[in-house]
């Protein structure tokens, strides 16, 4: 069923209930789509007074807003069945590219689930149609956590924000299909920031209360499900401000989510699990031809150390610094380190965090453009327990002869290798079994000698 409305819609009393409601969405009797279609791209095309709103409370009870290539702030005035306000705000900062000849649309729904986000461990009752798990597999963890079902660290609510992009997600996950006119071109959906509202700790139907892990209200982060990789954690959107909590409703706002990182199914997760740190900022600035790297954390749990890695292409990274973490902290902490030999032109820096159990997560990444005059060869190196990764950014002619030596802190030689180096970036791996400790790399040409200190940490 669909309803199209070119005029503005203003709910002044009562509420609009879309389709059948109930906990969860994925069951044999609950695959029917019911659309409320707003065929007006203006941000004021849907308004609701206080105490009124729209009840969806199932995945396929959807508000379809045909915004086309428009931008602005779109507010979905969702309310719970008792009319507690739980609106969803979508700030579109960059327009998507329409596919077909009609207005491309975003489809919205939200619903409360059984307590603990599932009716039994690994049950798909209550989860979005495309979601297959609530595993604690997050932010490229290595090794993966052993938790099979981490739903008790998520609010008892899901959201769908479906742009119908990336090869036709709408056709795949909406059982009756969606015509092409409602899609964006694959990979060209809008850039959007989201503000989620949920039933807070003080509400009689709280979505953060037991059997969820307590306390959780006030320390939530947004997560979306990557249906290509079948996990929740390849991407963790930064938040804009703190998780507002403590009342009948709580809310949390994301920064802009790019088209490449936009998948349809969302929830809110405890920031202490999955991510052991809550990152406030991460940036790199140029001073005196060096890259000055700053970051701040709001909270840290079980945090052993940070690793700063650098890349010339944003894909292949090499560690350049390790900084000790605070362990556990609930106050803002500021960190910084220096890359004395940044790459020429544009490069990328990535911040990773490793806890005391050896789990590593990627916390953030930024681009960096080198400044000043680079008129000398630069050396960078990073060591593991069985090899040394060396990067030489050379200004010399191709086929230059380099001698690379490694010594310990007593000056004793560990290895020496001769390498042929070309102009630009050269990477070498020096394989050697050495214990943890501080070592020194000596790189020599016919005219210059470069030194680099390396920390080996298993």
Polypeptide structure, described:
With about 450 residues, the chain is mainly β. It folds into three domains: about 280 residues, no CATH class; about 90 residues, Immunoglobulins (Immunoglobulin-like), CATH 2.60.40; about 80 residues, Immunoglobulins (Immunoglobulin-like, Sandwich), CATH 2.60.40.10. It has one helix and 27 strands. Strand 19 and strand 20 form a beta hairpin. The longest helix is centred in the middle third of the chain and has 5 residues. It is elongated.
User: Tell me about the biggest sheet?
Assistant: 6 strands, mixed
Q: Estimate nothing, just give the exact number of structural domains.
A: 3
- Placed side by side, the strands forming the largest sheet appear as 3-6-9-10-14-12
- Return the string of H and E elements: EEEEEEEEEEHEEEEEEEEEEEEEEEEE
Helix content: under 10%
Structural class: mainly beta
How many DSSP E strands?
27
The mean pLDDT is 78
Which stretches are low in confidence, meaning pLDDT under 50 for 5 or more residues running?
A: 1-5, 23-29, 137-146, 165-181
Strand content: 35-45%
């Amino acid at each position: 069923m669909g309803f199209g409305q070119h005029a503005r819609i203003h709910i002044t009393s009562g509420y609009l209930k879309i389709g059948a409601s109930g906990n969860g969405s994925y069951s044999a009797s609950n695959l029917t789509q019911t659309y409320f279609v707003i065929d007006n791209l203006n941000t004021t095309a849907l308004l609701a007074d206080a105490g009124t709103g729209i009840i969806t409370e199932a995945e396929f009870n959807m508000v379809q807003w045909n915004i086309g290539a428009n931008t602005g702030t779109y507010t979905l005035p969702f309310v719970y069945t008792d009319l507690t306000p739980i609106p969803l705000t979508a700030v579109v900062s960059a327009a998507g590219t329409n596919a077909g000849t009609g207005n491309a649309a975003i489809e919205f729904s939200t619903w409360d689930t059984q307590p603990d986000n599932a009716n039994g461990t690994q049950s798909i009752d209550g989860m979005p149609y495309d979601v297959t798990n609530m595993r604690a597999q997050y932010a490229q963890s290595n090794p993966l956590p052993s938790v099979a079902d981490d739903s008790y660290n998520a609010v008892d609510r899901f959201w769908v924000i479906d742009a119908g992009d990336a090869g036709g997600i709408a056709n795949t996950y909406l059982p009756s299909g969606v015509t092409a006119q409602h899609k964006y071109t694959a990979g060209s959906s809008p850039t959007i920031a989201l503000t989620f509202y949920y039933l807070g700790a003080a509400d009689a139907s709280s979505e953060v209360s037991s059997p969820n892990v307590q306390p959780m209200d006030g320390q939530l982060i947004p997560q979306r499900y990557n249906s290509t990789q079948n996990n929740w954690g390849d991407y963790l959107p930064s938040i804009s401000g703190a998780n507002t909590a403590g009342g009948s409703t709580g809310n949390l706002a994301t920064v802009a989510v790019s088209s490449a990182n936009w998948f349809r199914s969302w929830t809110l997760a405890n920031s202490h699990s999955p991510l052991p740190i809550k990152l406030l900022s991460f940036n790199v600035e140029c001073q005196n031809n060096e890259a000055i790297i700053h970051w701040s954390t709001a909270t840290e749990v079980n945090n052993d150390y940070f690793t700063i890695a650098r890349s010339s292409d944003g894909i292949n990274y090499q560690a350049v610094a390790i900084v000790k973490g605070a362990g556990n902290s609930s106050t803002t902490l500021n960190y910084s380190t220096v890359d004395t030999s940044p790459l020429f032109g544009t490069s990328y820096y990535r911040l990773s965090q490793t806890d005391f159990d050896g789990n590593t997560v990627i916390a953030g990444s930024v681009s960096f453009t080198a400044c000043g005059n680079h008129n000398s060869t630069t050396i960078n190196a990073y060591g593991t327990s069985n090899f040394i990764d060396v990067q030489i950014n050379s200004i010399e002619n191709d086929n230059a002869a380099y001698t690379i030596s490694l010594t310990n802190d007593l000056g004793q030689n560990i290895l020496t290798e001769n390498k042929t180096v070309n102009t630009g970036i050269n990477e070498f791996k020096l394989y050697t079994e050495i214990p943890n400790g501080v070592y020194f790399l000596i790189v020599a040409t016919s005219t210059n000698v470069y030194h680099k200190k390396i920390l080996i940490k298993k």
